Structures are given as C-alpha cells and as structure tokens.
Amino acid sequence: MSIRHLSRSIVLQSFFAWDFNRDDNPVLEDILNYNIKNFGAGLENEEFIRKLAKGIFIKKDEIDKIINKAAPAWPLDQIAAVDRNVLRLGLYELLFVKAKEIPPKVAINEAIELAKTFGGETSGKFVNGVLGTVYREFEEVKKEEPKEEENLAGAIVYKKEGDGLKFALVHDIFGYWTFPKGKINENETLERTAQRKIKEEININAEIKEKLGANSYVAYNPEKGKILKNVSYFLSETKDEKIELGGSEGLDGAKWFFADELPRLNIYGDLLPFLTKAIKILAKSG
C-alpha cells in the first residue's frame, strides 16, 4: 500500500467514524488524531492527511449538493456511510485540488479502490459511476466561457520593525501562503473591502497606501460553473503587532514574515509580481 493511499484510508476511516457517530457531536480532529496515532505511526506526510481532512470538512456541504445532483435516485442519508464518505473524499480531490497535484484519474482510481476495500460488493461501481458523471460534466464546463464575474479586493500588509519590514500572510488549506482578500459588498469601495478583509482574516487594522494593480483568474464553482474573478490588490500599512486568524473559510494559518523569508514560502505565482512591486516601493521610500 502506498503512503498516500494509506493516508487517504486514515482520512476515510476518520470521516466514517465522525459521520456514524454524528448524533453524539464527535470532534473530527480528535478522531483524526486517534487514527493517525494508531494506523499511521511513522508516516512522514501527516500534513497531507490533515490538509485533506480539513479541506473535505470545509467543502462538505458543497460536495454533498454535488452528490445529490449526480445521484438523484439516492438521497444522501440513504447512501451507505462508507460510500458517502468515499465520494466526499474523491470529489474533493477531483474538484478542489489542482490537477497537477492530484490528476483527475488518480483521484477517481483512489476513491474506487477505497470503496472496494472498505465498502460493499457494489461500492466500487457506485463510486465509479458518480465520480465519472461529475468528471464528464466538469470537463464540459471547462470548455465553456465564464458565465459570471466577481470583483474582489485584497492587500499586502506590511509593518516596519527596526530597519526591516514584516509582511502578514495567510495560509490556505491547499498549502499556499497568500494575502487577505474577499468579495466586494454592495456600495463598498475596493479600498474599504481590502481593509475589511484584513480585519476579518487576521484581526489587524491597516491603512491603505496605494494600489498595486489587479489580476484576473477563472475559478470553478460546482453549482455556477466557471467564474471570472477580478482581484485588485493594495499596499497597506499597520502598526499592529498581534496577528490572529479569523473565521474565513479555506484558511488555516496566519503569520508575520520578514522580507528575506518570503522567497522560501510556497506562494501563488500570480501574486509574486504584486509582492515584488510592493517591496520595490517600500525600498524606495526608505
């Protein structure tokens, strides 16, 4: 058994136990810790297990809607608990993890093997049918032009410390460090949105200094299809020292970094030009 397959097995068993005992309000993290200790001793990729479990948990409601749509003859609560949670795991990797990290065929095949190992006689065929249906629809959607647009705003937050600079970054469930950002509310300016998201995501008050620029990317929403997201980024200064992660979905960490630490971080490629521009501006201003 490969290390990743074992890791997925631990995640599946944890979700099964959590789902089966949900009337007793179990804590998924406690179950996960127990299973890692008892079934994953010595595993070097514990981070993969935790990231996968956290991602599934955050996207669970969204995934459950997809299952209902792809298998209308089977209400969610009538699907066997093992099959239900194999589908959650498989759909998360299929739809919410980048293909270069987990290729679609790998996500589907791994889910089928888990269903055969832990499920009933027909579990493998059932999981294969549902994931195959979703994958075909997903491939068709990828060929379409985005039907909706969303405007967002975010900020690179810095703080002067002695002769150096510190930057506030947030960590997402996909393993990347990024910057606070979010959708613009009605009648809200881009600058105000950026300030609000800084406060919501890292509990810091910041002053907008200048606009760094904007970029656009296409995201996939299982219900809406492809969405064009336009993001404006601002340079923002704070005097606050304490950084505290808020309740934003999809984030699992927040931290200050000195400028010389940034090159070692896993940061989305399309954000690097804004970060480079921010550092150049601050270097000129002294």
Give structural notes.
The chain is of the alpha+beta class and 286 residues long. It has two domains: 3-143, NusB-like (N-utilizing Substance Protein B Homolog, Chain A), CATH 1.10.940.10; 148-285, Alpha-Beta Complex (Nucleoside Triphosphate Pyrophosphohydrolase), CATH 3.90.79. Helices cover 47% and strands 22% of the residues. The protein has eight helices and seven strands, in the order ααααααββββαβββα. α4 (81-96) runs antiparallel to α5 (104-118), α4 packs parallel to α6 (123-143) and α5 (104-118) runs antiparallel to α6 (123-143). The chain is globular. It starts with a helix and ends with a helix.
CATH T-level fold name of the largest domain = N-utilizing Substance Protein B Homolog, Chain A
| Corresponding CATH superfamily of the largest domain | NusB-like
| Count of the separate structural domains | 2
Give the C-alpha Rg.
21 Å
